[in-house]
TrEMBL record, chains A, D:
This is Cystine transporter permease. InterPro entries: AA_ABC_transptr_permease_3TM, ArtM/GltK/GlnP/TcyL/YhdX-like, MetI-like, MetI-like_sf. Belongs to the binding-protein-dependent transport system permease family. It is a multi-pass membrane protein. Its main location: membrane. The chain crosses the membrane at residues 16-41, 53-76, 186-205. Residues 17-204 form the ABC transmembrane type-1 domain. GO terms for cellular component: ATP-binding cassette (ABC) transporter complex. NCBIfam families: HEQRo_perm_3TM. It holds the Pfam family BPD_transp_1.
UniProtKB/TrEMBL annotation, chains C, E:
GO terms for molecular function: ABC-type amino acid transporter activity; ATP binding; ATP hydrolysis activity. SUPFAM superfamilies: P-loop containing nucleoside triphosphate hydrolases. Residues 2-236 form the ABC transporter domain. It comes from the Bacteria. It comes from Brevibacillus formosus. This is Amino acid ABC transporter ATPase. Pfam families: ABC_tran (PF00005). Gene3D superfamilies: P-loop containing nucleotide triphosphate hydrolases. PROSITE patterns: ABC_TRANSPORTER_1, ABC_TRANSPORTER_2. Keywords: ATP-binding, Nucleotide-binding, Transport. PANTHER family: AMINO ACID IMPORT ATP-BINDING PROTEIN, ARGININE TRANSPORT ATP-BINDING PROTEIN ARTM. The keyword Nucleotide-binding applies.
Length: 229, 245, 240, 229, 240
């Protein structure tokens, strides 16, 4: 019975959930850094940086995550000694970075050009204007897409189980192989992910709502003297 | 070091009491040799590793790694050794250094209960066989049926569980693993025919690490001699699995 | 104050400024007129280096500005610019908009910057809205804040690019009022506008651009009553 | 060397590629059917159907694909005897269906209400109007998102390797496990996916371009007599 | 032809039609007037059951229509409707737009439907554009195609909901021309429009709606020259 498995396994799975959360959090934070850098590459005037970003995004978006994870897991090992956690986190960060880059690029480019011009005309340098004027607006605008990508990132983190990590899914696989109850165990694992994601969504929605409220109604009140034609 | 998270391997890391870590890998989905019980990695392979570590004056750190990448993981220095029921094969001997065998077991055919068409390995021709990726059972399957009839899994247990679904006609795996599965009611499965072979399972270390082989062999001798091995084997199987049956 | 000589600027194949020469004295208010596409905005944008010109020269206070040598950011800070679409920073309050550049470009300390900001907001009659976000303001209010923001850098000259043309007609007056006040206080100004009333009343000189060149200029009264070129007549006819 | 592995393994991998393509094609076709049905559930007036669709979409989008695949792989077996291919295809279809449903729903709802009203006022029944008027327009509008989802579906199909399928990734895992050249083998597999996806993208882009061309310039030429204010 | 009795229709808490009673004779052309929100569109939409009314009754040709029993699709086919925003099918050519309903609703064979379609397109002077997609047409052309499309179902009555109010002024005439022709040929029509010229010239009766009710009606000449209610006067004053 699912209930039995749930009750007998929850200390284990709670611990695994914590690992999944940590892993995802670290991976997504790194992913945001990577994404920001790549986004700047893409909007920069340098052809070389542009090209690097283009190739990076094309390759990451053009190959399955599990392949990327396995390549990075073994590829990184040739270069540096990394714990499993960090190998997994970096692989996920590299993957999410490509998607986050596109989100950031879209958000930055959606900010009215006038904002940069006004900043420059006030004597702000390009980096200063980016940091103080463009990025804060872009981040805010990116939040819905970013929230969505974070949910995807959380789910995708399950694949590190296949390089041996004892995250939620890795633990689920191990449990099922010892209790011989595949189906029920997997359903329990699914439930954990579902709850995690629903909690996360709840907070993203709240954040979005608060940001929307922080902003004023789209138009200022105006005296509209109706004109008869 | 805890067994949950693999430390940066290589044995340099110092663990509890200033002892060096002895990090060794297994699939973790190979009951009763390696599996999880209440989250603790346990099983015959785990305890053998612990006994060996003690003799070597090291700190035992068992970790899990998918079976199909267990040898590359060793190469990539993610752990010092594989104590993961690796069968010694000539092919693998090119990739790793094996110690002396630490147990012997058989490769066994399992089928769904009530299946009358498969009585021996000769009956497997053209039948759908499930095995674990990168195992010596895969080599057996390739000999006994057509290549496109073989399904490769990450875990022997998963393969055994896919017997009753009708997607497989037979599974080849370790005798002990299958019998344990049957005993614990994993599914309506039976073993058929004689074991295909008696295999020697050994501990693997990286090529060139002769020193480690000697150190482990010495420790292995010691635990066999002082009865530790006997105790562990009796606990898990009710007999000594180092001896030829 | 400002000397522009033979300024040429192209966008790809399109030459937008075809040798513009213009001198603006200190405290002078110049109104820049011309049909759409004649290069008015481009000229203003060259004047504070939002665009780099191709050839010619620009002198400010006698000093020649070489865009590749001079510290342009510092220079830009001395030339205030007001845009058609205000370009206020929407994530900052009115006060924050005004103190942003003094604090982060000049390094003025916050208290001092705030005090100046309140003075300027008072001047543009926006002191009540200091803690409000731009989204809450009408167009006219936004533009007045934008003027205060530019003034906060204590510019030597102010450039206005059609500051009232995005406003509802009833809001134009309040912005022009602020600009008049500014002119009266002796600010050097170049204003692109189609507000003829403002031009007549406030400007010292009207300059008419056509097809990337200055075709005609003179004191507003003379210019409006007695334009020399057919083009100018035609243009004045169309906007009156 | 990667080249060596590529040369020695290509007969194997081409076969696996073919399986991946078949699997993806079948899964996505089924996924479109599922998606269409669920999209109709979501826009229907029935609270029950609405709710079913909502739960379905929430669960699928709230749990990792690998968990879904494993659950369906073993769960379906309790109900019907399915070959591995079909078990894999159905699992992928169920997953993609939820995403495709949202794409279809968005596309259908983006069609101007006036289209349905005009159709009904001409005497067309609701299903007829859907079929002949709304859906053709919605499909066309959905093509970019659908193309994107198909690319995701192709990459995601790699996960069936973990229920034993010898698709591209399954074959890659097996190869690497026997040649012990993980990194190189995985890179070769990644290359196959990349090429597949680039080919597919090329055709989607072509299709989009053709549909865009098939449409007229957005506005008809009009005599604009300029009026001096 | 059409009898509407005590029609009531609410959207949630908002009662939009508050007991409308109206009779339209065969071949009669009725113009429906009223301020925005008075319920004109809602009345038309009830007449061909794009909305279901809450109470009251509708009779067409003596037969009472019970929306839950009658085959509404067949009935809707007999009532042609022309919308403010044309609602042509953008993925079909002009010809395909016109034959769509005859072929797929009535089951007319394609050749016959096409012949009828060409006749109708000729009537609305759009025969040259039969193979063109709607996107290529001007608003006036679109509306004429929409009229042809409605006529293709051989309706007994035509409803027009502000058919010219989304058109550029210079395109209004061509649509009104088609509608006049239609009236002349004896089509029963209910037209919501603010085109007073059309109302005076073509309509047999003007009906004024206010706040979900019919306030006043009469022959156009009388109605326009001598409105009885203040509301009507006010309304006529505002649109003239
Ligand atoms: N960044 C740019 N790239 C290419 N062309 C440009 C750019 N900026 C301006 N132009 C072109 O330069 C010409 C002059 O533009 P400018 O904005 O200076 O005209 P203007 O006199 O300000 O007109 P308006 O009254 O419409 O603002 C126009 O043809 C415009 O299209
Ligand atoms: N589907 C609907 N749901 C809720 N309210 C509606 C709906 N359709 C119309 N209404 C409301 O019913 C009232 C009457 O609308 P209707 O469209 O019939 O007015 P109208 O006389 O056609 O006005 P207009 O001249 O603006 O077209 C309005 O207040 C409108 O907001
Ligand atoms: Mg301009
Ligand atoms: Mg209406």
């Amino acid at each position: 019975m699912i209930i039995d498995i749930f009750l007998s396994s929850y200390p284990l799975f709670l611990k695994a959930t914590w690992l999944t959360v940590q892993l995802t959090a670290v991976a997504l934070m790194l992913g945001c850094v990577v994404g920001l850098v790549i986004a700047f590459f893409r909007i920069s005037d340098s052809k070389v940086l542009n090209y690097i970003a283009h190739v990076y995004i094309t390759v990451i978006r053009g190959t399955p995550l599990i392949v990327q994870i396995c390549i990075l897991y073994f590829g990184l090992a040739n270069m540096v000694t990394l714990s499993q956690f960090w190998a997994g986190a970096i692989a996920l960060a590299v993957h999410n970075g490509a998607y986050i880059a596109e989100i950031f690029r879209g958000a930055i480019q959606s900010i009215d050009r006038g904002q940069m011009e006004a900043s420059r005309s006030l004597g702000m340098s390009y980096p200063l204007a980016m940091r103080r004027i463009i990025l804060p607006q872009a981040f805010r605008r990116a939040i819905p897409s970013l929230g969505n990508q974070f949910i995807i990132g959380l789910k995708d983190s399950s694949l590190v189980a296949y390089v041996g990590m004892q995250d939620l899914w890795g633990t689920g696989l191990g449990e099922a192989a010892s209790n011989y109850k595949q189906l029920e165990t997997y359903m329990v694992v699914g439930l954990y992910y579902l709850v995690l994601i629903m909690i996360f969504s709840y907070f993203v929605n709240k954040l979005e709502a608060r940001l929307a409220k922080g902003k004023a109604p789209t138009k200022p009140a105006k005296d509209n003297t109706s004109v008869a034609a | 070091g805890s067994q949950e998270s693999a430390p940066a391997a290589g044995g340099q890391a110092s663990g509890e009491g200033g002892k060096k870590d002895f990090t060794y890998a297994m699939s973790g989905v190979y009951k009763p040799f390696s599996f999880k019980e209440n989250g603790q990695l346990t099983g015959f392979d785990v305890e053998i590793g612990q006994a060996l570590a003690e003799k070597m004056g090291m700190n035992a750190v068992p970790i899990t790694n998918p079976f199909e990448t267990i040898i590359p993981g060793l190469d990539a220095k993610k752990y010092d050794a594989v104590i993961g029921s690796l069968t010694v094969t000539p092919e693998r001997q090119k990739a790793v250094l094996f110690t002396n065998p630490y147990y012997r077991s058989g490769s066994q055919i399992f089928v769904q209960e009530g299946n009358t068409s498969i009585k021996s390995k000769e009956d497997l021709k053209g039948k759908k066989i499930g095995v674990v990726k990168a195992s010596n059972y895969l080599d057996w399957a390739k000999k006994l049926t057509d290549e496109d009839k073989i399904t490769q899994y990450d875990s022997d247990i998963t393969a055994l569980l896919d017997l009753p679904t009708g997607r497989l006609d037979a599974v080849i795996t370790d005798q002990v693993v299958g019998l344990r599965f049957i005993k614990e009611g994993g599914g309506k499965v039976i073993d058929v025919g004689e074991p295909l072979s008696f295999d020697e399972q050994a501990i693997a270390v990286r090529l060139g690490d002769q020193e480690a082989v000697e150190r482990i062999n010495k420790a292995l001798d010691e635990i066999v001699k002082d009865g530790t091995y006997e105790k562990i084997s009796q606990k898990w199987f009710g007999r000594n699995i180092l001896q030829k049956q | 104050m400002i000397e522009v000589k033979q300024l040429v600027k192209s966008f790809g194949p399109l030459t937008v400024l075809k040798g513009v020469t213009l001198t603006v004295e200190e405290k002078e208010v110049v109104v820049l007129l011309g049909a759409s596409g004649s290069g008015k905005s481009t000229l203003l944008r060259c004047l504070n280096f939002l665009e780099f010109y191709d050839s010619g020269e620009i002198r400010i206070g006698g000093q020649q500005i070489d865009p590749h040598k001079t510290n342009l950011n510092q220079f830009r800070a001395e030339v205030g610019m007001v845009f058609q679409h205000f370009n206020l920073f929407p994530h900052k309050t009115v006060l924050e908009n005004v103190i942003e550049a003094p604090v982060h470009v000049k390094g003025t300390n916050a208290a001092e910057a705030k005090q100046l900001a309140y003075e300027l907001l008072k001047k543009v009659n926006m002191q009540d809205k200091a803690d409000v976000y731009p989204d809450m303001l009408s167009g006219g209010q936004k533009q007045r804040v934008a003027i205060a923001r530019a003034l906060a850098m204590k510019p030597k000259i102010m450039l206005f690019d059609e500051p009232t043309s995005a406003l509802d007609p009833e809001l134009v007056g309040e912005v022009l009022q602020v600009m008049k006040q500014l002119a009266k206080e002796g600010m050097t100004m170049i204003v692109v506008t189609h507000e003829m009333g403002f031009a007549r009343e406030v400007a010292d000189r009207a300059v008419f651009m056509h097809d990337g060149q200055i075709l005609e200029q003179g004191p507003p009264r003379e210019f409006f009553e007695n334009p020399q070129h057919d083009r100018t007549k035609q243009f004045l006819g169309s906007i009156r």
